[in-house]
Amino acid sequence: MLCAVYKSSKKADTYLYTPKKADFSDVPQALLDMFGKPIFVMLIPMHKDRKIGPIDTKQLADALKEKGFYLQLPPTEDSLLVKHRRQKGLSDQPDKKF
């Protein structure tokens, strides 16, 4: 089974996976509006024991079968305060002293 991968023209590090190239019929219009014009990246074969980016192929195959698409969002970044606290060897959240 092949899978088509598209990157967003509006959102960095955001990818849309579809079971067929140029078939966005199962993708909600609101999502396509936020995603922008899909930019084709590649067709990839889906093997059971292969990871595709940060997702495994079972998770991807299930989403393609159930919803007809899979949306990969960029990983969330920690706030600058959390990064600073970690560099100082502190916990992510300050202790509450109330």
TrEMBL record:
Entries under InterPro entries matching the protein: YcgL-like_sf, YcgL_dom
Xref: Pfam families: YcgL
Chain ranges of the YcgL domain: 1-85
Name of this protein: YcgL domain-containing protein RM544_05170
Superkingdom assignment: Bacteria
